[in-house]
Amino acid sequence: MSIKKQTLGEFIIENQTAFKYSSGELSKLINAIRLAAKVVNHEVNKAGLVDILGASGDTNIQGESQQKLDVLANERFIQTLANREIVCGIASEEEDDFIRINSADNNHQNKYVVLIDPLDGSSNIDVNVSVGTIFSIYRRVTPIGTPVTLEDFLQPGRRQVAAGYIIYGTSTMLVYTTGFGVNGFTLNPAIGTFYLSHPDMTFPETGKIYSVNEGNYIHFPEGVKQYIKYCQKEEGDRPYTSRYIGSLVSDFHRNMIKGGIYMYPKSSANENGKLRLLYECNPMAFLAEQAGGKASNGFEPILDIQPEELHQRVPFFCGSRKMVEKAEAFMQEYSSK
Ligand code: AHG
Ligand code: MN
Ligand code: MN
């Protein structure tokens, strides 16, 4: 890798001035996430060597079995952010409730809350397939200096200040947006530095990949069934290719680079699908829109949904703009909300 490339640290400093009235707080926060990403990357990479593969024996609030690395990644992110007293609150997919961060004198002035999916795609850990971390950042709505409340976390995705993911893949990347496009940074593991490798990432307007767990086909709404048939039909640039890793971060990342659509619809088994609005769909939707793509629940933009609870789930259609619009058209035609 050329050492001429800009480092993430340099990029953050250079772009800090892009924020009006910036106090540097968001930059410090992104820096803390960068550090936590390196720590978790280190743990993920040695997963096969030490006793951190497999299930922890516990379940999270959503009744899903937690993997040891889920728990570890959750701890590492929370510790890094809490120790730096850089946020006033954290919500995590792996925690029952949100966490209030108090400073030593109980009177810090931090204005940001962070929401995380510490380890996404955890069923892939044991088989050495890419996993990720997703994060989402909001400005609190309650007064600075007071303890955060649920209201600070239940904001529509449209209000995100920043969002991103880390993909622990063939190489480790941090991809994020602060509302001025999407940039991707690749970790050089030898020296522990992220370099700007993918500036200004954009979804191709359309693509040839559809990503969905087709094992659930029989349970899908009619609109999704019809759209899948459309993807498979021999006509024009179709049939499309089916690619599904089972790790949203990885599926999204590939589709953003190559062009494609990711779907996790509702089904007769899961009334609202599986993915969580706050920890997964909102941050990915913000990234998608910033990259010229689209994200929807089949009927309306994900970013416009008013969340009602921390662990809320929503159907998710996300990716290349024209493909998502086509899927929405099928939903309108064949399925009721
Ligand atoms: P998590 O590991 O954080 O629970 O998320 C897993 C999610 C998502 O990453 C993935 O696309 C989807 O669940 C896979 O679900 P299925 O196995 O039902 O297809
Ligand atoms: Mn996840
Ligand atoms: Mn997870």
How would you characterize the overall build of this protein?
Strands 4-3-5-6-7-8-9-10 form an eight-stranded mixed sheet, sandwiched between helices. Strands 12-11-13-15-14 form a five-stranded mixed sheet, sandwiched between helices. It has helices at residues 8-16, 25-45, 68-83, 150-153, 222-232, 248-258, 277-290, 321-334, and strands at 55-59, 65-67, 89-92, 99-100, 112-120, 131-139, 162-168, 172-177, 182-188, 193-198, 209-211, 241-242, 260-264, 294-296, 316-319. The protein is built from eight helices and 15 strands. The protein is of the alpha+beta class and 337 residues long. The protein folds into two domains: 8-198, Fructose-1,6-Bisphosphatase, Chain A, domain 1 (2-Layer Sandwich), CATH 3.30.540; 209-333, D-Maltodextrin-Binding Protein, domain 2, CATH 3.40.190.80. α1 (8-16) runs antiparallel to α2 (25-45), α2 packs antiparallel against α3 (68-83) and α5 crosses α8. One manganese (II) ion is lined by residues 117, 120, 248, 280. The site of one manganese (II) ion has 4 residues, from β5.
Number of self-contained structural domains: 2
Rg over alpha carbons: 19 Å
Q: CATH fold name of the largest domain, please?
A: Fructose-1,6-Bisphosphatase, Chain A, domain 1
How do the helices and strands follow one another from N- to C-terminus?
HHEEHEEEEHEEEEEHEHEHEEH
The unique ligands bound to this protein are: 2,5-anhydro-1,6-di-O-phosphono-D-glucitol, manganese (II) ion
Number of helices: 8
CATH architectural name of the largest domain: 2-Layer Sandwich
Distance between the termini: 49 Å
> How does the major sheet shape up?
8 strands, mixed
Sequence of strands across the biggest β-sheet: 4-3-5-6-7-8-9-10
Q: What average pLDDT do the residues reach?
A: 92
CATH superfamily of the largest domain: Fructose-1,6-Bisphosphatase, subunit A, domain 1
